[in-house]
Amino acid sequence: MRRIVLLPFLLLAAVAFGQELLTNGDFEQDITVGWTRLDSGAGTHDVTRDVNYEPDPDYEVYVYQYDNPGSTVLVQTVDISRTLLELKFRARFEEGGGSSTCWPAACVSLLYYNSADGLLGETKYYYSTYANWTPSPTLSLHQVTNPDWTEHTLDIDEELATNLTGVDPVQVAKVGVALVSYTSGG
Fold first, then answer.
1. What is the DSSP pairing of strand 104-113 with strand 119-127?
2. What does pTM read for this prediction?
3. Strand-pair partners of 183
4. 178, 34 in Cβ contact below 8 A?
């Protein structure tokens, strides 16, 4: 099984000021600038930055995890003063293999934290045939059905009010953006 997330840009911006909050959200610098890589479980893990994933001259990043339970994650967390923010990204998701007991998923996740780094909730854009996540007041799911390069936009205030009713926007002090390649079982 394999999961791949390919992204040419991630933009987390303060709506009122148009201020970009992510460091190296366009991946034009090495991925160690602004981003942290986390691998878990066995199998093959890979994060690569290249200009050949999308037919344009800009850099994209490829996040890959193959076989066995685990994940490859590229993440960045930023302090915020309010949730009047917009997440915009362009991505292509891939999946290979899988079953109902061992399913792969490619995700772009938005993680909402309090000031003590406690996770309050999560929004997942995911591509998976078999994923069995269930939405809740603290987990919002947006299933991606088109694996081609597609632009996605999320109004974070609206997301919290509509889909994450268990997350108090006043408590959100940090937002994490994670690119995840995941396998549920081995």
1. antiparallel
2. 0.91
3. 70, 104
4. no
